[in-house]
Amino acid sequence: MRIDQLRRHSFAVRYLTLFGGETLSKLCVMAAFSYMAHVLPPSEYGKVELALSVTMFFVMGVEGGMGLYGARIIAAHHDRIPALVPQVMVLRAIIAVPAFALMLLAGARYRAEGFGLLGITAFAVWFTPLLTQWVFQGLRQMQWVAAGTALRNLTFAAVIFMLIRAGTDIRHVGYAEISGVAALALFNSVVLFGRLRVRLNLHGVMHGTRQVFKDAWFMGLGDFAWACLWYSPALVLGWLGFYGPEEVAWIAAPVRVVVALHTFVFLYFFNLLPNLAVELTTGVDAWRAVIVRSMRVSTWPAILLAAAGAITAPITVPLVFGAAYVSAVLPFQIVIWAIPVAWFSGHFRFSLIAAGHQRREFGVSVATAIVTAISAAVFGTLWGSVGAALALLTGGVANAILAVVVSHKTLGTVPIGAALVPDVRTWLNRRDSA
Predict the structure, then answer these.
(1) Which residues of 234-258 are buried (b: 16+ CB within 10 A; e: fewer)?
(2) How far is CA 324 from CA 209, 241, 379, in A?
(3) pLDDT tens digits for 152-200?
(4) Quick one: CA torsion of 316, 318, 321, 322, rounded to 10 degrees?
(5) What are the pLDDT digits (tens) for 20-39?
(6) What tens digit of pLDDT does each residue of 286-332 get?
(7) CA distance 140 to 341
(8) Residue 19 to residues 50, 257, 270, 280, 307: CA-CA distances in angstroms?
(9) Predicted local confidence at residue 112, as pLDDT
(10) How many CB atoms lie within 10 A of CB 119?
(11) Alpha-carbon distance 400 to 347, whole Å?
(12) Residue ranges per domain, the chain?
C-alpha cells in the first residue's frame, strides 16, 4: 500500500475540500430536483420522493454504520485496511439480500409506476460493498471523498436532465439513481485498488466479518434510526393515506433542501471524528476543549442560516420548486430549524462514536426514531405536511437533549452555556494582531 506516501492535510483544508465538493454536488442535485418539480405534477413528484426515501432507508441499513466504524479503526491502524475492507464488503453483501427483498415488498403498496421505480432503485443496495469512501476518511484524504460524491451527483443530475420530460415515466428517475451509485462505486475502486494499491487479505474473512458485525451493528441500527428523523415524516404521511401525494410533496420538497444543507453538518463531523477519537485517547480535558472550540465556531452561523431560510422561504421555495409549491413554504420554515439543532447535537453524538460507545449512541438514535415516527403519525394526521414538519423538528430536539444527557454521563460534562457564547474577545485579538 502507498499509505505512508500520502500527504497529510489540516482540519481546515480537509473540511474546505469536502465543502467544495459537496457544494458542487448539492447544487447539481437541487437543480435536478427543481427541474423535476417543474416538469412533473406534484402527485408524481411526491411518488418520486417516497421511492427515494425508501431507498435511502435501506441503503443506510445495508451500510450498517460500518463506514464510521471502519474510519475510526483505520484512523488509528492503517495496517488493518487489507483485512477490514473485505470484511465490510462481505457483511454489506449479506445484508443486501434481505434489504433487496424488503424493498420489493414495500413497493407492492404503491401503484405500478411507484413499484417499478422502487424495483429499479432497489439495486442500489448491491453497490454498497464498493462504497469504500470510509477508507479515505480514516486516512484523512478528503479530496477523494469529495471527488467521489461530486461524480455520483453529477452523474445523477446529468441522467435526470437527459431522460425526464413532461409526461415521462417516473421510473426513469431510478435509472439516474443507479447510474450515480455505480459511478461512485467505480471511482472508489479505482482509487482503492489503483492509487492506493490495496491488496485484499481474505485470510479469515468470515471470522473477521462476524467480529465487525458484533462491533458495528449498533452503529448501523443507529444510522438507520437517524434516517428516521429525516425521512419518516414523509413516509408516514404517505403511508397513512389520509392525504394525497401532493401533501407528501409539500413536506418532501422542504426536506430535500434541508437534507442537502444538513450534508454540510454531517461532513463537519465526518471530518471532526478522527480528531475527536485522537483527543479522547489523550483525556477528557483535551476532548472537552475541542468540543467547546467547535461549538463556538459553528453554532451561530447555523442559527443565522436557519433564520435567513425561514425569512426568505416565501420567495425561495416557489422559485426553486415552482408556483405549485406555495403550500410547502410553512413546512420549510419549520424544518429549516433542524439544521442548528443537528449541528448542536452532532458534537455529542459523534463524541460517543469516537469514544467507542456505539451502543449508547444507538440508544439515543432509536429513542429519536420512536419519538419522530409517533409524532409524524399524530401530527401528520392532524395537520398534514405541516404536522410532518413539526414531527421532524420534535425528533431533532429530542435527539439533542438525549445526546447531551448520555454524553455527560458517559464521557464528561461540557459547559454548554459558555460554549454557545461566541468568543468575541479572541476574534478581536486576532483581528488586531493581523
Answers:
(1) bbbbbbeeebebbbbbbbbbbbbbb
(2) 50, 21, 23
(3) 999 999 999 999 998 888 889 999 999 999 999 999 999 999 989 899 9
(4) -150
(5) 888 888 899 999 999 999 99
(6) 999 999 999 988 888 999 999 999 999 999 999 999 988 999 999 99
(7) 26
(8) 28, 16, 12, 26, 21
(9) 44
(10) 17
(11) 10
(12) 11-433
The C-alpha atoms of residue 343 and residue 407 are separated, in whole angstroms, by: 15
Nearest to 85 by CA among 182, 211, 209: 209
How far apart are alpha carbons 213 and 229 in whole angstroms? 24
Q: Which residues, 6+ apart, have CB-to-CB distance to 39 below 8 Å?
A: 164, 165, 166, 168
Question: What cell was used for 401?
Answer: 437533549
Question: DSSP labels for 371-422?
Answer: HHHHHHHHHHHHHHHHHHHHHHHHHHHHHHHHHHHHHHHHT----HHHHTS-
List Cβ neighbours of 34 (8 Å cut-off, separation of 6 or more): 320, 321
Nearest CA among 16, 378, 404, 285 for reference residue 386: 378
Computed over every residue of the chain, the mean pLDDT equals 87
Instruction: Tell me which long-range contacts 424-430 makes (C-beta under 8 A, separation of at least 24).
Output: none
Q: Check residue 224 and give its pLDDT.
A: 76
- For residue 203, count other CB atoms closer than 10 A to its CB: 10
Please state, in angstroms and rounded to a whole number, the distance separating the CA atoms of residues 214 and 316.
46
- Length of the chain equals 434
Residues 282, 223, 30: CA angle, nearest 5 degrees:
110
Q: Report the amino acid identity of residue 63.
A: E
